[in-house]
Amino acid sequence: MKRIATLALLTLTFSLSAMEMREEEEVSTLVNSYDKATLTEISNELVRIASGEELMGEFDLATLHYKRALKIRESIGLKSHKSYASILYLSSSAQFQAGYICEAAVAAKDASLEFAKHGLDKFQAKAMTDHITYGKVCAQVAMK
Prior knowledge:
Layout: H1 2-18, H2 23-33, H3 36-55, H4 59-75, H5 82-98, H6 101-117, H7 121-143
Protein name: Tetratricopeptide repeat protein
Signal peptide: 1-18
Keywords: Signal
């Protein structure tokens, strides 16, 4: 099963690079081709790749991979899982670093709300702090 997940991830990454399909079509194709366990593995691998891309300063690519991981999780019914909140929070940081300031503010707020649903107060507070910080920067940028 891990080999299938790796092949699916390589296909997804290749199509990302080649811009062969839109994001929705890519995720839809994966969801129609693999079971929930394999899709969860693919999502986890996308998060690992995004994390590495952040370390290399590739924030645009990291943002895209986090978004794909989130879409996969949504499509298999894991939006209410705490891992979704974590990925959403990671995505907000990458978005901010990539210059998608206002989108980062929204993602941080959404992550904060999701953390609160799971009683993860420490993470909820951190995400809300980032939401406020990103929101202030967003407002400043919008005024220019």
